[in-house]
Structure formats: C-alpha cells, structure tokens
Amino acid sequence: MYLAKIKVTYKPSVLDPQGEVIKSALHRLDYETVEQVIQGKYFEVRLSADSLAAANGLVESMTEALLINQNTETYNYTVEEVEA
Amino acid sequence: MKSVVVRFPGSNCDEDMFYALQELGLNPSFVSAQSDISLADYDAIFLPGGFSYGDYLRTGAIARFSPIMQAVQAAADNGQLVVGICNGFQILTESGLLPGQLMMNEVPGFICDETLLQVEQAESAFTNAYTTDEILIPVAHADGRYYADEQTLADLESNHQIVFKYTSNLNGSEDMIAGITNKQGNVLGMMPHPERAVDPLIGNTDGQNFFKSILATVATQGVN
C-alpha cells in the first residue's frame, strides 16, 4: 500500500483571490510582516501498486486527469510505502 | 427543431431553461447526465446552471466525466449546437470543449444581479436575432472570472470567438469576457442567464433573442 500526498497551487501568474483576502485579514491582525499568502489544495490518496515507480506514475496520471486544471494549477507530490 | 436540457445532479436552472425553450418554441426535453445515450437527434443541447456534483474539487470538474458528456462531445464534433450557461459553461471549459477556465470572482463572493452585456458578434449562431448591441441579462455566480493565457485570449479575439463582454468589470474576467464560442462557432458558453429574461412578467425580455437566434440558425442549417 502506498500513501500519496499531493499539493496543488495556482501557477504564479494566476490571481488567488482567497490568498489575497487572507493576507488582508492577517494584516488586520497586526501580522504586518506577511508579504504573501497562497491558498492551495492538499490531497492524501491511498492506493495499491506493484512498485513505488508504478505508484508515482498512477499519482501523476490521476492528478493531471482530475485533481488539477492544467490551465491554472500546478502540483507536487510525495509517495511513501505504508502498511496496508 | 428539437432541443434537450441535460440534468446533472445539482443542476438548478434546468426548469428555467426548459421553460424558456418551451415558451420560445425550441421543443425541449430533458435527459439525465447519467444516461449513456446518443444526442444525435437534437439540434441544440443545453447544459444548465447550478452546482453539478456540488461543484466539489472545481466547478464542472466532476460533471465533465458524466456518461452523457461523451454524447455531448460527439454532438459538438458533429456541428450540432451546444450551449452551456453558468455551471454549463464551467463544465464545457473543464471538458475542453471550450478553452480557458472559470475561476473565483476577483472579489470573492456570489454576485446576483442584472448586468449589461455587449454583443460582440452580431452574426453568431446565438446572437443573429439581436437588433441592439447592448442587452441586459441576469448574472448569478461566485466562480465566473474567465481566465485564459495570453495566446488563447489572442486566438479568441482573432477568431471572433468572444460573443459577449461585460460593459464594466463585473468579476475580474480577462478582457471582460462573458461568453465565448469554440473555433467552429457551434459551442457556446456564457456566465449570464438569458433563460431568466424571457417572460414579460419578469420585466426583462432581453434573453428572448438569444433563443430566437438559435431557432433561426437551426432553421437555416436544418439538422432535423
């Protein structure tokens, strides 16, 4: 059994309205040194695969098929073997 | 003329769309997004507004994998008219039938209003009956900010695919885009709701000519 942890964020060129609102709120709370907030998505996927390489391949293909919209989002991930 | 309204789990403008189509003589029926049938018999296919599959993950992201979408893709390839309003537009971009993506409004929040639209393409399959280039149409969305990269925006402009623009910055859309077609001109997506502006009782009938345009297009091209 493998556990994938996938982080999705907007590409740097894409406006992140939620991040901007959160940044403003942090400034109102006197965290004045905050320069940028990026809000993203985080997924944990448990899956079985024949090998770590196969699990990596599956994670990449499912992320690009569904979890992200490649127009605007980018991702990185880790995969580790875990007990079933 | 035969038209069909696709009902996704979470569609909520399906009845309004059906009513508008019936009132204006487009002879509608309903089809479930779960059905795996051909849509070859319909001149025009409508994907209505709402929150398909709860808009989980991203608007339209789950709906694009509904069984019916293969038939919608085939109909689009076949030159039949495909219209996505609001959530329907989001489903069309997610499925790649239209370029770009609809994203959270520039200022987060749900906009429920009427807005002036500029009709940019008077000869399109969806606008040919309009006699004025400014129309007032209801809007209701939180994720209506049209985004596409610079090359895509330039292509949309040069191919005359931008059909409707907002007349002021409503939601932060690139180039104030409110509605676009595909390159062939038979697939249209727009965030505003023409189906909510067809009955004189409501006080605004600017949406009527949208449907009359489609009638005229079908009468000219004549699939059925």
Automatic annotation (TrEMBL), chain A:
- What are the subcellular locations of this protein? Cytoplasm
Q: Does the keyword ATP-binding apply?
A: yes
Q: What is its main location?
A: cytoplasm
GO MF annotation: an example: ATP binding
Biological process per Gene Ontology, one example term: 'de novo' IMP biosynthetic process
Q: List the GO terms this entry assigns under cellular component, sorted alphabetically.
A: cytoplasm
Matches recorded under InterPro entries: PurS, PurS-like_sf
Family, per entry? Belongs to the PurS family.
Subunit structure, as described in the record? Part of the FGAM synthase complex composed of 1 PurL, 1 PurQ and 2 PurS subunits.
Q: What does this protein do?
A: Part of the phosphoribosylformylglycinamidine synthase complex involved in the purines biosynthetic pathway. Catalyzes the ATP-dependent conversion of formylglycinamide ribonucleotide (FGAR) and glutamine to yield formylglycinamidine ribonucleotide (FGAM) and glutamate. The FGAM synthase complex is composed of three subunits. PurQ produces an ammonia molecule by converting glutamine to glutamate. PurL transfers the ammonia molecule to FGAR to form FGAM in an ATP-dependent manner.
Name this protein carries in UniProt: Phosphoribosylformylglycinamidine synthase subunit PurS
Q: Where is the organism placed in the taxonomic lineage, from the top?
A: Bacteria, Bacillati, Bacillota, Bacilli, Lactobacillales
TrEMBL record, chain B:
Question: Where found in the cell?
Answer: Cytoplasm
User: What taxonomic classification does the UniProt entry list for its organism?
Assistant: Bacteria, Bacillati, Bacillota, Bacilli, Lactobacillales
The reply on keyword GTP-binding is no
Q: Which keywords belong to this entry?
A: ATP-binding, Cytoplasm, Glutamine amidotransferase, Hydrolase, Ligase, Nucleotide-binding, Purine biosynthesis
- Domain of life assignment: Bacteria
EC number(s) from the headed UniProt entry: 6.3.5.3, 3.5.1.2
Q: What name goes with this protein?
A: Phosphoribosylformylglycinamidine synthase subunit PurQ
Q: Which SUPFAM superfamilies match?
A: Class I glutamine amidotransferase-like (SSF52317)
Record: active site: C86, H193, E195
Pathway annotation: Purine metabolism; IMP biosynthesis via de novo pathway; 5-amino-1-(5-phospho-D-ribosyl)imidazole from N(2)-formyl-N(1)-(5-phospho-D-ribosyl)glycinamide: step 1/2
Question: One GO molecular-function annotation for this sequence?
Answer: glutaminase activity
Q: HAMAP family of this UniProt entry?
A: PurQ
